[in-house]
Specification:
Blueprint: E1 8-11, E2 19-22, E3 36-41, E4 47-54, E5 72-75, H1 78-84
Parallel strand pairs: 3-5
Antiparallel strand pairs: 1-2, 3-4
Length: 86
């Protein structure tokens, strides 16, 4: 990716508002190369990209063509949990 090229990916949010984040360098215009989990906090409504856990690759199912997959986790983020546990 050149210095002037930047790609984004859609990030889910608690209110179904579309948000976007920058992709890492391995992504290109024709291929989104990193597929990670998103975590939505039920208290602060922030969305976090969890890059350390990858979404498993799902091969095509007979009669279907899989174009993308998403995994969204919901719960409480570390910051909100620290306020609850005080």
């Amino acid at each position: 990716m050149g210095s002037s090229d930047a790609y984004i990916h859609k990030v889910p949010d608690a209110n179904n508002v579309s948000k976007y984040a920058l992709c890492p360098e391995e992504c290109s215009k024709n291929a989104h190369q990193h597929n990670h989990i998103h975590f939505i906090c039920n208290i602060c409504n922030n969305t976090f990209c969890i890059d350390k856990i990858k979404v498993p690759a799902i091969k095509d199912i007979i009669g279907f063509r899989v174009k993308s997959s998403k995994l969204i986790l919901e719960g409480e983020c570390p910051d909100c949990l620290s306020h609850i546990n005080q």
